Predict the 3D structure of the following.
Amino acid sequence: MNYILLGIIIIVYVFILVALSWYAYRGTKSASDYMVGGRSMNSVVMALSYGATFISASAIVGFGGMAAAFGMGLQWLCLLNMFMGVVIAFIFFGKKTRRLGSSLGANTFPQLMGRFFQSRSIEIISAAIIFVGMPIYAAVVMKGGAVFVEEIFHIDYHLALLVFTLIVSVYVITGGMKGVMYTSAFQAILMFVCMLILLIGLYKSLGMGFTEANRALDAMDALVPAHLAAAGHQGWAKMPLFGSEQWYTLVTSLILGVGIGCLAQPQLIVRFLTVRSSKQLNQGIFIGCLFLVITVGVVYHSGALSNLYFYQEHGKVAVEMASDIDKIIPLFINEAMPNWFTILLMLCIISASMSTLSSQFHTMGTSVTSDIYVDGIKQGQAPKHFTKWIKLGVLFSILISYVVCYMLEESIIARGTAMFMGMCAAAFLPTYFGMLYWKKITRQGALWSIVSGFVSCLFCIAFMHQKEALALGWCQAIFNKPVLIEAHPFPLIDPLIFSLPLSAIVLVIVSLLTYEKVAKQK
Amino acid sequence: MFGISDPGICLAYLLELACLVFGVYYGIRYWNEDDEEETLKQD
């Protein structure tokens, strides 16, 4: 490792972040500037920042590692990321959300829902769900970044985590939403360029082209380790066996959980509130799709093909090279790529983590301060120096996420992300969709849907879904069995598959039952 | 196709390409298009 080059690159990188934060700090005069960037961000900054927030180190390190284990089936997630996360999100959700947010003067996602339904309960409950669930997601993103730094530079994990958190904290606390968006846009450009270089480096290290490499990977089916084959793995260029354990994990947790869950992510939805008009969202679709196909598409593709690389070099496949799935991509990059590129990719992955983390910290901070403290406890009476209070909220959220990070188990990055996205989708998606498109939606319907979606998702995590239920051990302690329904395939189905339809059904039934009464009162 | 024998994987790559083409087309086609109400306000 060339430490002089590394030092220079890191100094330049941090200098750019500081400069952007300073620029954002100077442009942040009001609470609205701090929370939604004064609703005046341009399309390029908005789309790049949206993409960078969407793609965390979790997507690169965690899901890249999953692609190394599961194979090219993860490309379905890339498709859903593009289609649901950009096309559907921007066209069908973004435009209406922006108009609604602007007319209601909402600065956060819980505030948007609370003001739409004229209900403080909805705002506070939504903010509480975000504040309870998001530290887990933030912690896995922090772990993703720190694991990468540890693996590449062989430095202490705890030191890596501390420095990493401190840098993000500084620019989120000082620059607010503008700081988050400017730095995320810069980080997105870095990620885009790095992933393009990774694609070229991948084929150079393999010594073959796209089709030839795919064919070679397709011919490696016999090398699938016995424990993976028993779970339904059929090869890295094939989908898992339909109905097998791997199929359920891949399709229900990783592809659907994240693919659908991304529509109801508060830290992404708030991006729609930062632009002046729908024109910026139209332009953002072009930028967002291009960004996602290069970033996630390349990393999932590289993850699967890392099996071919490791086999050529060591006679082993990826999961045999690293026991922790989260360490496969860092190991692959460290071995297969030139030194200078390893440094650049380190910055890319750190950027991916930082951009997502900064948005998460900002969302948690505004939820706890603006939604819970001001709108909930203070009944809408904003205190003096409101921006300083939000900054305190952000600091509080950072500390909680930092503590949660030390409680995480191994190979948690991708699963933790899927869990949070599923939780958000179950709690918020039916209400969010209904709010934009269904005239008969009522306050009671929304409230019951949010609560039932969140509670049922938690219940399924603790008592139904095998991976989490076994780790928590509550089901074993209470019912004396590992999961409540042991018949196949129930223990393998992601909680989202149960809780999202339940939340939607509750929304429809309660809204229809209360609509007439509400209409008469009006 | 693409050296991959499983149609389930090929389809994912093809749809990604289609989605990208749509995103590029939509972005360019409506680059300067605003909401009707926004346009009216500006007028």
